[in-house]
Design a protein that fits this description.
The chain is mainly α and 208 residues long. The chain has helices at residues 3-17, 20-27, 42-48, 51-74, 79-94, 107-117, 119-136, 139-156, 161-177, 179-187. The chain has one domain (3-187). It contains 10 helices and no strands.
Length: 208
Amino acid sequence: MSATETTLIIFAYLLGSVPTGYLMGAWKGVDVRAAGSGNIGATNVARLVGKRQGILTLAADAAKGFIPVFAAVQLGLAPPAAALAGTAAFLGHLYPVFLKFQGGKGVATALGVFVGLAPLVTLVLIVIFAAVALTSRIVSLSSMVAALAAPVSLWIFSYPPGVVGLSALIASMIIIRHRANLRRLLAGTEPRFGSVGVSSGDEETPAP
């Protein structure tokens, strides 16, 4: 691994570690980790602080994944190296050094990574997410299905094995971070969006 790649990976992790949702809440005097779902993602921020802050959190978390990948491409690095930088940002969001390694679920950050790596594949994933969301009205299920579809879609579109492998790692981590949602899905108690009097649960954001 070159010095450029090493530096970019460190930068990507630190950028991913910036707890956007937590900072948005702190700006308004709210610790989003101690209220709502306890998640630092856009959905909980929007619920506790406001839709504007939720949208800003979504955009910033996605940018954390996109920027390192974009930088890698601009530096002329190979796709696997760009994917590695994006994965470092994703892991930074999940395990942020600035919050004692207690982060979010990484869905929005993964979206940014895939936008930078494979825009066409990302479009496919968004369609898959939307189809599941419209039929099930369950954001967490939609996120997990889209995440699982990512490595398959990248393989179908003939991306290098390193890219497919790292996308599989991202997908598996998203599933692990949704384990509470999985338990509720199996029990039939996972909230559906639009249900009257029902919280939207602890989904991070409606994105692959």
